[in-house]
Amino acid sequence: MVEYNELIFEISRPGRIGSSLPESDVDKIDLYDKLPKHLIRDVQAELPEVSELQLVRHYTALSNKNHGIDNGFYPLGSCTMKYNPKINEDVARFEGFSRIHPYQPEETVQGALQLLHELQEELAEITGMDAVTLQPSAGAQGEWTGLMMVKAYLEQKGETRTKVLVPDSAHGTNPASATVAGFKTVTIPSNENGLVDLEELKKHVDHDTAALMLTNPNTLGLFEKDIVEIAKVVHEAGGLLYYDGANANAILGKTTPGKMGFDIVHLNLHKTFTTPHGGGGPGAGPVGVKKKLIPYLPVPRVEKDGEKYVLNSDHPRSIGRVKGYYGNFGILVRAYTYIRTMGPEGLRQVSESAVLHANYLRKKLEPYFEAPYSQVCKHEFVLSGSKQKKLGVRTLDMAKRLLDFGYHPPTIYFPLNVEECLMIEPTETESKETLDAFAEVMIQIAKEVENNPGVVLEAPHTTVIGRLDEVQAARQPILRYTKEKAAEREVVKS
Amino acid sequence: MTATYRYLPDTKQDQEEMLSFLGISSTDELFEDIPPEIRLKGELNIPAAIPEPQLLKKMHELASQNKNANQYPTFLGAGTYDHYIPSVVNHMISRSEFYTAYTPYQPEISQGELQAIFEFQTMVCELTGMDVANSSMYDGFTSLAEAASLAVASTKRSKVLISKAVHPESRAIINPVSAGQGYTVEEVDLAADVTDLVKLQEQIDQDTAAVIVQYPNFFGSIEDLAEMKKTTEANGALFIVSANPLALALLQAPGKLGADIVIGDMQPLGIPMSFGGPHCGYFAVHKKFMRKIPGRIVGQTKDEQGKRGFVLTLQAREQHIRRDKATSNICSNQALNALASSVCMTALGKQGVRHMAQLNIEKADYMAKRLQEKGFMIMNQSPFFNEFVVELPRPVKEVNAKLLEAGMIGGFDLGSDYGFDNQMLIAVTEQRTKEEIDQFVEVLEASVNG
Ligand SMILES: Cc1ncc(COP(=O)(O)O)c(C=O)c1O
What we know:
The structure holds two protein chains of two kinds.
Chain A: H1 31-34, H2 52-64, H3 86-92, H4 95-98, H5 110-127, E1 131-133, H6 139-156, E2 163-167, H7 173-180, E3 184-188, H8 198-204, E4 209-214, H9 227-236, E5 240-245, H10 257-260, E6 264-267, E7 287-289, E8 301-305, E9 308-312, H11 329-365, E10 381-384, H12 386-390, H13 395-403, E11 411-412, E12 421-424, H14 432-451, H15 453-457, H16 470-475, H17 483-493
Parallel strand pairs in A: 2-3, 2-4, 4-5, 5-6
Antiparallel strand pairs in A: 1-7, 6-7, 8-9, 10-12, 11-12
Chain B: H1 12-22, H2 52-64, H3 87-93, H4 96-99, H5 111-128, E1 132-133, H6 140-155, E2 159-163, H7 168-181, E3 184-188, E4 190-191, E5 194-195, H8 197-203, E6 208-215, H9 225-234, E7 238-243, E8 261-265, E9 281-285, E10 297-302, E11 308-313, H10 319-322, H11 335-373, E12 377-378, E13 387-391, H12 396-405, E14 412-413, H13 415-418, E15 423-427, H14 434-449
Parallel strand pairs in B: 2-3, 2-6, 6-7, 7-8
Antiparallel strand pairs in B: 1-9, 4-5, 8-9, 10-11, 12-13, 13-15, 14-15
Helix pairs in contact in B: 3-11, 5-11, 6-7, 11-14, 12-14
The complex binds pyridoxal-5'-phosphate.
The site of pyridoxal-5'-phosphate has 14 residues of chain A, from helix 6.
């Protein structure tokens, strides 16, 4: 394939256009008659000028330089890169969903409100919670929303508690959300089994503990067996339990955060519920709560009033609004469609398959890599590249080598408490053949590290571009196109 | 389990082989680490699975219970607009190499997404007149709240002034955000349809971290940013402008009028209304705040051969590195909608974006004049873009019911948020034809008499 390396601005030529708008059917206006001169744009925005076909070729060429789930296996741990069903994409684009305005009279959007209401109820059932808000745009915003509810709940009880406990294996958004919600983060070290250390936890839980944030199964893919005891410890001290349910792919129909004793949970619909990651977003991060926290849920809430669905903002103890309108509706439509496709047995089988696949792959790879926690895992597992590191090859190098085989690498260097970590999440939508083929490549790479490390150290060999200089990118940031920088590039070329 | 679900490929044989490799007889054994007392006994109580043909039918039925802008010309705006979206936009974002990819953490196989974001950042900088833009935020409202937090953190002051002419939802969302971070928010009152500059003078002080205004404001009026900048700068506060990117095709770039941070939502350019989301917040700053900006940023660099490439950069700001020291917790953003917006801006192009903006301003102007001819009072005293406020002799709700009967969606009722009873905020985009506008005016006229 011929390499394509142009920016859209570089193929732009004055006078070209990629769309056609009608001429005005009303009187023309001279801006200078309407606006003071200093509020009229003097220098035009340099947007591209290309024909429609040039546009299509440009973005098609870019897409060819991108790897998505549809291109191949994507075992990126903690991200649940499962198949994104096509019907979901079609449905979200129905005009009755995509071309409705958020402020239309309620009676003109009953279908949309019904969908939201049913989704709220189904997610409440799936998580074992009493009510759900669909407003948060993503997991991180869900976490923050949940913590703000914790704060409001405690305030109502006349308590100010300042600490949020977070295990060292937690996702970065957990401590960051605690900070932006105005809490202090206290990090709890995991024990040698990768689980919350109950004794350590007890040392930190006190009358100043607002909440414990926990992922279960945790980011090592292990189920916190002591969860009931953990919940008791936190509750007895008057704290609340927050469940990071970004990755709920192991528990559907098997258990619920509600049963485990959690008070608040967020889900990432862009993980467990198949909505696409979109190259970074948009997602949706609904939050479920137990009864005592219902008054604090964001407004407006979608409620049913007799036969009608309504938006109700009359909840005086609510933390208020956390996001514009009612959440990422288009994403919620996709998740609803998915839940309808699977039904209860289907969702349970999702988790059973996801867990089976993870354990199968784990057992296949364990002879070749250090397995810091060799026990039954849930939907994902971690390996350590420490053996290979001793031979001079780092996890990063192995990840790059995987690219040569058309695989997206696993998550690397996370969680932080595992040296040279590789975090692998195969998901339920991959076939056994894919898992076998991937295992073989991983084993081949492990062998290369021993016999021919150069080929790993110099990887990738087959991608459109080699390893990039990230240090330079951060030291001398070029964050936008300018003609001058483009000119510099011409010099490099010649 | 025998592959009865189309997303689950395991056959009975696959399953047996995997189980026997693991030395177990059932997947139940893989769940034994879940204490029995917290295991679910029966199935989840949710509706049964529906095969694809029936599901499509059901979803069509649900969708048809909503009145969409294709059947019902809409005159609602108030932050979300029915604009023309070129067909190419949906085709390009439907390339699954884009939409089924995660965040581009592996640059060698994500150059397409990375370059697309780099181009998006450039287009946002061009429109806003700012130096640096990030790769997107959840929406314009949360973007605004993050801008306020940035201002508080970087000025070490604890008060934020926000004009009442800023979108009510922005003013709502900033409340929990400021409560979390411990700063106060004061609203600056209106002088007719714009921010009251005298009040702003009175309220601003040495503890003011930022002044936040909207451009055009919630009523469609174009605020005089130059005047506000003077007051803001004299008090050492940052000037935050929430701007409609389409309007910026014609209006002076906020960057040229002294904005320190420009935020807003790209929805008017290429993103469907979708009942309010997903849209796409943008966030642009003066270069002195480059290392304080929230969210992901793409930068240009080179590979070992000197070939140009793109990477996520300045990551030391972000939650995955900084954890509890991070100033923002954003992780996932709205990347696919940023792409949609880039494709739309590319399709419209330098000329088309201006043309579209011009159509908006002309159609809104036409409609306002028609209404004035019929004796309606237009409340805007300042020039407006594609929205304006009209006073009606009856409650907006009643008039909107008449409009609905006539097959149209009426404007936004300013009664509940502002207490401006009988005042309707009307948006007129390029999608509205002269006939539709005339019909709307007729119904309004009839509703007064009827
Ligand atoms: C365990 C966990 N928690 C939270 C998040 C944050 O979710 P989001 O990116 O949707 O904000 C993620 C996703 O990256 C995650 O894996």
